[in-house]
Amino acid sequence: MNSNLKDELKAAGKRMTRTRRAVLNILETSKYPLSPTELYAMLQKDNVAIDLVTVYRNLTALKELGLVTQLELHQEGQFRYEIKEGREHHHHIRCKNCGRIVDLLLCPLKKLTALIEQETRFIVGDHSLEFSGWCPKCQ
């Protein structure tokens, strides 16, 4: 596990519990954002003694500490979580048929964000952009 995550928890006055470590380990190795129920199923498969409520509590705490990102893919209507450490701002594309999610490791909105800030004199804190379509297997 990334030592920065441990340090950030410690700095926030939080302990690295066994369940937090297990949640963070799975999120660190996942190739796509996970729903709480997917995360719970993976923890069960790894024989981690944890209930779904504790998964939700840990995700909420980790999100509040800024260690995980919560995103909502609108076509699903549920939140998903991914590790924030070492990841650049990015967007996602989701298959409308099988639900596969792929990271888009780019953000085409940088110029648009600058234009919006110039026009409105707002400082844009964040934004979201979601794509959906059909993956190669489902085409």
Automatic annotation (TrEMBL):
Lineage of the organism: Bacteria, Pseudomonadati, Nitrospirota, Nitrospiria, Nitrospirales
Organism in which the protein naturally occurs: Candidatus Nitronereus thalassa
InterPro entries, per database record: FUR, Fur_C, WH-like_DNA-bd_sf, WH_DNA-bd_sf
Assigned protein family: Belongs to the Fur family.
UniProt keywords, alphabetically: DNA-binding, Repressor, Transcription, Transcription regulation, Zinc
Gene3D superfamilies: 3.30.1490.190, Winged helix-like DNA-binding domain superfamily/Winged helix DNA-binding domain (1.10.10.10)
Protein name, UniProt field: Transcriptional repressor
Signal peptide: none
CDD domains in UniProt: Fur_like
